Amino acid sequence: HFMPRMFILILFPLFRVKSLPCHSSEPLPVPNEWYQQGDLILGGMVSMANYQFNEVSFKHHPSQEYFEHPDVLTKFYQHVLSLVFAVKEINENTEILSNVTLGFYIHDSYYNAIMTYRTTMDLLFRSVRFVPNYKCDTRRNLISIIGGFSFGTSSYITDLVKFYKIPQSSQYIGIIRMLQHFGWRWVGLFAIDNTEGEHFLETMESFFSQHGVCSACTQRIPYLTYWDKLIEMIKRSENIFKHIIDEKIKTFIIYGESLTIAWFTNIIFYLDPGQEQSSLGKVWIMTAQMDYLLTGMNKKWDRQFFDGSICFRIHSKEIPGFKEFLKFIKPPWIQEDRFFPLFWEQRIQDIPGVLFEMKLSGHSYSIYNAVYVLAQALQALFLLRSKHRHLLRHKSSDYEESQPWEIWKARIHIIFHLTNVQIEISELVLPIRKTQETGSQAGEMNFACLQFLPQKHSTTMIKLLINFNCFIFLFYYSLLYRKKFCCYDCIPCPEGEISKQMDTVTCLQCPDDQYANHKKDGCIMKTISFLSYEEPLGLILTTVATLFFLTTTWVLGIFIKHKDSPIVKANNRDLTYTLLISLLLCFFCSLLFIGQPGRVTCLLRQSAFGLTFSLCISCVLAKTILVSLAFKATKPGSRMRTWVGKRLAVSIVLICSLFQASICIVWLSTSPPFPELDMHSAIEEMILQCNEGSAVMFYCVLSYMALLSFASFIVAFQARKLPDTFNEAKFITFSMLAFCSVWVSFVPTYLSTRGKAMVAVEIFSILCSSAVLLGCIFVPKCYIIVFRPGLNNREQLIRRFI
């Protein structure tokens, strides 16, 4: 039953419980703290004293254990005073949080995990006695915690406060954003070999996996070096140096302390004294606490190797009144301050600058700003509540209703001016520091500026920015055996898709009316395509159709001029005229397929094509049937004589043509053709074409034409041996054979093409088949009429027949 009870304990109400007397002996005592009462309490966590805590012996109560004299970082006392000064200014300012008094409760982490957990629980629960997870009175309303100088300290605090929805943030997401901004995806990690370093590596690896950054190598830097392990240390150094000189790794993140930089410097000087291999233009990114401790390093160290390194240095600015505030701090004046005895009894301004600076440091300024951020967030929250006060059932004070998680939501939207510096919380703008040999004051610049890099490394940096990036490609993870998630290949986006971002995991589909450009980073509008009269192919087909049309007109004129000649009479003059007129229409209807398709042209062109060709083939079929019947009718006693005449020819032409006309009428009434844009057949074009409406009806028209052609071919083939003078069967047989060959090859070619080519194939088939009929049937007759008129007489025809 342990787990259910533990769960109930965690969920027990933390805030606004009734005051109860708490009886409990004190656990491990807290040497350093500073409490000031207020309506709302700001928690503070600093790292100032380092006590050598003894292990619990279980022989004495922990509160009775002896503490050795601490090692004190006196300069960090400024962190405490900056928080106190900010609270003092806000309480004295009537424009911020009027009628509300801010208090504070400041603790020391003691650079110890156990004590950090202990003091954090003090901030959450302690009033008179310490009872974990329970508040003994409601007078202390903790609204937020500011602090966590190192990664370890902040992570220990987070382990506790996250259960109670007290907001926190860290600088490490800033590192990720900087890596993403510059496109640094292949990054080496170096961390001090202790618990904090391990925690840092775990956190960064988690951030890397979430934001697509790869750890090229992960190395742990020794915390301390002993002479008896020198050989082991040399081997370890060589392994680390191997990654430092790796040309593929251009960016490194270092987490540690001042000794970490010293250790790195010693490695370089030992393994590469002339810096011939290590001077490769690397980018070194350091965390904020390293930047702070770096200022206390020995100036004689040669830091040329780290020239151009980037540190997360927090902006600092002089605050009016802060130095005066420090001068008036004396032991009697701050009775509740249990940090001050660490400075003995001397005045702050008399302490050497190396131990305590009168000028506000970057971290102190950050703490000062953090207090103002929280104050402005509370102010915004109270103003919002005051507008809706009439909706509340009870009229308690605004600050009594305040919860830590509400402050976080209000803080995100705040933009305020503080000491003439605009601070926007919703965006992360990081100042960049250039480490210089002279130790001069660091410069600050925006993310988008690369001037912080030394001149000698600028070329290397340009290469680095384009390394391991898939800009116009798909971010494809190669799921190879024992490969990290970030080991991927860049492959092109599929046709019609683009990528507008670097290292994207998916490609974007262009709209239907657009296509991807050559680089595949943008879409271009497709052009509308159709077979026009202006382009070469359309112009050639138009010219050919016109020439054939004029040729057919000339042939028709010749036949009309010589209508009484024997050769014209012998070949059924009326059918000849009808056939020539139908051929004229065939050549003319091919022009309906050229030009921009419209509603009228789409309705007419296939129907006109089907009707004119059916009329043409019907005439050929009628001529062939009449020739066959004419020779059979000459036999004595034959009844075929009554069938030979104009009525039979007219009947054949009308019946065959009307049947095709009925198919076209059904087609146009049920599924008429219409113009459409085909956006998918071509990549860079939208094809403006005629949709046939019903493919079945279109192929019915073609099938009926094929049936008439086949029938004409069979009849002509059977009549091919009749006497030459009156017989056209041989020419008709050859013309029908060529005609059928054209349209049989048309079907697969038509189905395998799209756009202009499809239209051109049909026009070519129309012109070719019509020209075959014109040439095979009428060229021999025109030759006799024009060039051999002597053969065009009755006597010659009778003589040849005999």
UniProtKB/TrEMBL annotation:
A GO term, aspect molecular function: G protein-coupled receptor activity
Entry annotated with the keyword Membrane: yes
Transmembrane segments: 365-384, 461-479, 537-560, 575-595, 607-627, 648-669, 696-719, 731-751, 763-786
Subcellular location: Cell membrane
Annotated GO CC locations: plasma membrane
UniProt signal peptide: 1-19
Coarse class of the protein's main subcellular location: membrane
InterPro entries: ANF_lig-bd_rcpt, GPCR_3, GPCR_3_9-Cys_dom, GPCR_3_9-Cys_sf, GPCR_3_C, GPCR_3_Ca_sens_rcpt-rel, GPCR_3_CS, GPCR_3_vmron_rcpt_2
Gene3D superfamilies: 3.40.50.2300, GPCR, family 3, nine cysteines domain
Lipid bilayer topology: Multi-pass membrane protein
PROSITE patterns recorded: G_PROTEIN_RECEP_F3_3, G_PROTEIN_RECEP_F3_4
Domain G-protein coupled receptors family 3 profile: 537-796
Keyword line: Cell membrane, G-protein coupled receptor, Glycoprotein, Membrane, Receptor, Signal, Transducer, Transmembrane, Transmembrane helix
Membership in a protein family: Belongs to the G-protein coupled receptor 3 family.
PANTHER family: CALCIUM-SENSING RECEPTOR-RELATED, G-PROTEIN COUPLED RECEPTORS FAMILY 3 PROFILE DOMAIN-CONTAINING PROTEIN
Protein name listed in UniProt: G-protein coupled receptors family 3 profile domain-containing protein
Source organism of this protein record: Pseudonaja textilis
Organism lineage: Eukaryota, Metazoa, Chordata, Craniata, Vertebrata
